[in-house]
Design brief:
Elements: H1 7-21, H2 25-28, H3 43-64, H4 69-96, H5 106-125, H6 144-163, H7 165-171, H8 178-198, H9 204-226, H10 235-261
């Protein structure tokens, strides 16, 4: 099977990346986030949304320059889950909470519908793709434990935020609304999925973009949180928050550095 990326799939990655980078404006002008997503958000929530989209957008952009399906498979699946869940979530809240948004967010719905269809077409195109070969013994990933930890924690947090937004609002380290809690949950579930798909992946090329996304997310969250220390409910959630995302930035930054400088194992193809 031809593993090279068709032009239309590269265009899809660039199309989605452009959408995500629109949210960068919210880092400096958090009041503009209401023009980009349907729900009101405080400055801290607006900047957190912006960081989520920034980290995702960088990963999607890197996929647009990817060499083949192996390099983009994990992120492509993650994008498909994120866009589909966000579309369903929006429709759910519009139906059951009709007065929650001032007007029907038509551009938001149309964009996420188009994104979901395009990603589904990409996955269908490569539906028969299989590993090129079994991993040689010396190429087994030594980082499986890290991916497992992130899969379990992000998956658990994301599931709670989506299914029990009222509980998530109480546990979240700062004030957040239920729809935004569910929006965050959609992103966390997608990140848990890409982490889970990385557990058994022995090719560094296949998980590099995921590592970049998580590193950018960790750095971004720490920086925007420093701007809003007064918005955290208490010192303990603040401590846990900073430890988690600082560790995320350091761990995945270290993985990127290690795999950038280490020699390629002879006989291993990525």
């Amino acid at each position: 099977m031809d593993y090279s990326l068709p032009w239309w799939l590269r265009a899809t990655f660039f199309f989605i990346a452009i959408q995500t980078f629109d949210f960068i404006l919210a880092l400096v002008r958090p009041d503009l986030v209401i023009a980009l997503e349907p729900w009101n958000a405080t400055p801290l929530n607006a900047r957190f949304i912006a960081v989520l989209y920034l980290a995702t957008g960088i990963g999607v952009l890197l996929c647009g320059f990817g060499r083949d399906y192996i390099q983009v498979r994990i992120v492509l699946i993650g994008i498909g889950v994120a866009t589909s869940v966000l579309l369903v979530l929006t429709l759910f809240r519009l139906y059951f909470y009709p007065g929650e948004v001032p007007k029907l967010p038509v551009p938001w719905l149309v964009i996420y519908f188009i994104d979901s269809v395009l990603v589904a077409c990409g996955l269908w195109h490569f539906r028969a793709a299989k590993p090129l070969k079994s991993p040689p013994p010396q190429a087994a990933s030594p980082f499986s434990a890290i991916w497992i930890v992130y899969t379990v924690i992000l998956g658990g947090v994301g599931a709670v935020m989506l299914a029990l937004p009222g509980l998530a609002v109480q546990l979240w380290p700062w004030k957040v609304s239920e729809p935004l809690a569910q929006l965050y949950g959609a992103f966390f579930l997608a990140l848990a999925l890409v982490s889970g798909l990385s557990i058994g992946e022995w090719r560094w090329e296949a998980v590099r973009t995921t590592a970049v996304m998580l590193m950018v997310l960790g750095i971004g969250v720490v920086l925007i949180s420093l701007l809003h220390l007064d918005r955290f409910k208490s010192s303990l959630p603040l401590l846990v928050w900073f430890v988690w995302f600082s560790a995320e930035a350091l761990i995945f930054g270290a993985l990127l550095l290690i795999n950038q400088v280490r020699p390629v194992v002879k006989g291993v193809q990525t």
